[in-house]
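A.,

Following up on our hallway conversation. Structure tokens first:
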């Protein structure tokens, strides 16, 4: 069982020992630290925090603990109940709130939950703020309010609808063309809040939604990470229903993947590529993704005359570089679409609306659309190292070995070869080096990974 503390929040498994798992005491401890940070940051009389959760079995318990902890600190809470990560992100500025907390462990299995923390803009915390909350959690400086100064909880369950309103009001979402196309789409909501939000969005767009696992019970019918090996039911349903395509989201609805009409994966990496193609064809501009995302995004961006930049891995890093470079769309290769016209956060609802607009515009099958993009293939591996090995030193040696190539070192070591690339990153929590490669065939990507792994092992002196 596990408890992971990071700048973006606290994540762990339910039950077990205090300090080793996400127990009620740990939830209260970190909610208190966040509340204290809010007060230090905002320094005013009244404070408000928006709180929402995915459909996890433990969600109601954790939400009650978190909200009442904030109430005990004199902070008012807007309770969204069952919601999505992007919905909470949208709600924070709409409520003029001081922050937000999403109770979700994203794509982790049902025994996990987490407190994801937002600032007053509805964006994830930066490194400095996250570390301050971790420091406060271990301090004895947290103060609670007296009986006459307690906060209040206000329930507002309208925000998914309000979020959809905001999406439909985006100039590039072509509601008329989508409705005219009469699409039929299968939705896998993995029995979480995507099963509420995505069908509602499709209904508003005049799309016939066939629901698969859309009952928000928190009992995930398959591994909730939207990868090919977990989506056989969706693929079969798309073919059986003669649907135009399938949609799958993770439990908190910030990751999005598609299945083509033939039951084949569109490719999680290509969700962002397709949405970017549509946006840039209408509003030219720059793009950003993280260093471990497909090169196809760079290709599509340059085709439209834009400039592509790669950030360190992590949503907060992508957002920071997007702001610096005035990127009009960006995200991560795990199916995360960030469209600043609405907000700076990964948002599957925005992704669905943009993708449908693209399809309605091009009037082609999803498999045909996929074939219009450059084809790249990824291999994702890791090497377990023995504790005590100098991981940074190993990466430095790899950097020296390939100093004649195009190298980026803002997040580990990325080596860009003319026809492929490799990204080496160390884990922050265990002695592991992650090796991501991408090439124009799966064999080439796998072979490159094997070659690099062999070189790392030789440098490390391991078999």
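Then the amino acids I'd put at each of the 463 positions:
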């Amino acid at each position: 069982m596990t408890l992971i503390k990071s700048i973006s929040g606290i994540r762990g498994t339910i039950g077990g020992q205090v300090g080793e798992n996400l127990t009620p005491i740990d939830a209260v401890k970190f909610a208190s630290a966040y509340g204290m940070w809010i007060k230090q940051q905002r320094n005013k009389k009244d404070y408000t925090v928006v709180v929402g959760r995915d459909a996890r079995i433990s969600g109601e318990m954790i939400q009650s603990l978190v909200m009442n902890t904030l109430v005990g600190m004199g902070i008012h809470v807007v309770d969204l109940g069952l919601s999505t990560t992007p919905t909470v992100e949208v709600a924070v500025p709409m409520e003029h709130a001081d922050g937000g907390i999403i109770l979700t462990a994203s794509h982790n299995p049902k025994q996990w939950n987490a407190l994801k923390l937002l600032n007053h803009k509805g964006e994830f915390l930066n490194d400095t703020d996250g570390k301050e909350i971790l420091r406060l959690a271990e301090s004895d400086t947290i103060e609670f309010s007296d009986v006459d100064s307690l906060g209040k909880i206000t329930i507002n369950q309208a925000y998914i609808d309000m979020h959809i309103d905001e999406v439909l009001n985006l100039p590039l979402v072509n509601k008329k063309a989508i409705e005219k196309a009469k699409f039929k789409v299968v939705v896998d909501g993995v029995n979480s809040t995507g099963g509420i939000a995505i069908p509602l969005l499709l209904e508003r767009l005049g799309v016939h939604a066939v629901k698969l696992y859309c009952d928000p019970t928190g009992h995930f019918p398959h591994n909730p990470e939207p990868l090919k090996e977990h989506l056989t039911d969706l693929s079969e349903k798309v073919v059986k229903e003669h649907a135009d395509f399938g949609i799958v989201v993770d439990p908190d609805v910030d990751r999005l993947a598609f299945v083509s009409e033939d039951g084949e994966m569109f490719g999680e990496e290509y969700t962002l590529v397709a949405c970017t193609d549509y946006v840039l064809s209408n509003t030219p501009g720059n793009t950003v993704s993280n260093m471990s995302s497909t090169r196809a995004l760079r290709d599509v961006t340059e085709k439209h005359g834009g400039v592509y930049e790669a950030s360190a891995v992590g949503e907060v890093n992508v957002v920071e570089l997007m702001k610096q470079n005035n990127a009009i769309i960006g995200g991560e290769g795990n199916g995360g679409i960030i469209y600043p016209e609405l907000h700076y956060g990964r948002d599957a609802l925005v992704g669905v609306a943009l993708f449908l607009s693209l399809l309605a515009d091009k009037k082609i099958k999803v498999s045909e659309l996929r074939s219009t993009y450059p084809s790249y293939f990824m291999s994702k591996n890791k090497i377990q190292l023995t504790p005590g090995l100098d991981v940074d030193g190993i990466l430095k040696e790899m950097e020296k070995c390939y100093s004649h190539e195009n190298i980026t070192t803002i997040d580990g070591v990325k080596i860009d070869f003319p026809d492929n690339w490799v990204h080496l990153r160390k884990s922050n929590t265990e002695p592991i080096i992650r090796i991501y490669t991408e090439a124009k065939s799966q064999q080439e990507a796998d072979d490159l990974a094997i070659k690099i792994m062999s070189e790392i092992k030789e440098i490390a002196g391991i078999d």
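The first strand starts at residue 3 and ends at 6. Curious whether your intuition agrees with the design.

B.
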